[in-house]
Each structure stands twice: as C-alpha cells, then as structure tokens.
Write a structure and sequence with these properties.
The complex is a heterodimer of chains A (about 110) and B (about 120). Chain A has about 110 residues and is mainly β. Chain A has no helices and 12 strands. Chain A starts with a strand and ends with a strand. In chain B, the strands form 2 sheets. In chain B, strands 2, 4, 5, 6, 9, 10 and 11 form a 7-stranded mixed β-sheet that branches. A 4-stranded antiparallel β-sheet of chain B has the order 1-3-8-7, with no helix packed on it. The chains are: A mainly beta (about 110), B mainly beta (about 120).
Amino acid sequence: GDSVTQMEGPVTLSEEAFLTINCTYTATGYPSLFWYVQYPGEGLQLLLKATKADDKGSNKGFEATYRKETTSFHLEKGSVQVSDSAVYFCALSGSARQLTFGSGTQLTVLP
Amino acid sequence: EAEVAQSPRYKITEKSQAVAFWCDPISGHATLYWYRQILGQGPELLVQFQDESVVDDSQLPKDRFSAERLKGVDSTLKIQPAELGDSAMYLCASSRKGGNMNTEAFFGQGTRLTVV
C-alpha cells in the first residue's frame, strides 16, 4: 500500500537558518504530494502541493519539488522564522482521494 | 473564509463510556473524512464519505466505532465503549465534489479526546 516516510525530528534551528525536511514515498501510479503544517492545538493546514513529476510547490517561502526518480518531496526554506515553529507533515493522495501521511517532523525555531 | 467546524474541542471521558464527535464540513463539500491522530504520529483515515454514502471504512474499528452522515452534510463519529487507547485527536476534513487526487482537503481544528 501507499506510505510516506519523513525524517525524524525534532528539528531545532536558529532564526534565518536553512531548513530541509526529507520526505520519500511509496505509491502505485502517480500520486499527488502535499505538505501540511499543524500549529499547537490546531488542525492541519495545507502548505503546498505538487501534482506531477518535476512540479514545484511553493508557499510562504517554503518549496518542495516532486522527484519521481527518487520518489521524494523534500521541504525547504531558505530562512526560517520563529513563527514557522510547528509540526510538518508530508502526505500523498492517490486515486482513492485519501491522504496518507508521514509521521510528522516537529520544527522549533529559536530567536 | 469557510471552515470545517468540529465540536467539542476537548473531551474527557471515562473508559467504557460512550462519546460522540460532530463535524460540519464546508458548504457544498461532498467528500468528508474522519482521521485519528495519535500524539506524535500522522493522521490515519478512519472513514470516508461521499455525500451520505460510506466510500471507505476499512480502518474503522467497527466493534466500537460508528460514523454517519445521514443527510450528506454534517457527520457524527461515535465510540462506544471508549478504551484508554482511543485517546487521540480526531480530525474531520472535507473536499469539494468532483475533485480528484489533486483536490485539497480542508481540516477542522479537531477534537482532543482523553479517556481516563
């Protein structure tokens, strides 16, 4: 079945540092890929998505590129802020239109 | 901005008691999902509705969990009897009709259940 593997956290960075959170997936066919963010005590919000190979999703300074050859969708941001502290989930959606999530990566950004 | 509404936000219940959660999706969204998120893990799908019909409930523990969406709008998830291992965040999400795998799912704020 479909699965998503994320780098384990927690990740702690200083403000303005570069962020990478690794994500790889296993799926049949050609899924769509997503990054969701969850702030403390809240539900999930879509951060960005990519729907086909080589697509780049971007939002709020975050980027991720759909790499079919390496089955990866790594999240990057050039300069993190304290307000980016949250849990980040990589997810995929296949033909059943159901999201399969990774285990999440806790990011803490220190001032 | 339209939101997925869930209630209650927090629920504490004793084991063996019954508990219910309510979800009102974004107006016009035909697909509704219930996910369970155990602390420190990613959400896992419990049940998926298309209008009032169950599309997938293969991961729903049917001996104690039930879900309904009688008029194809709001939905209720019930647990009876609750067990200690049911302590988790229960998330509801919805997406628009006619979508495909690219279609965004919008999540509610969730119900945090603690079973004591």
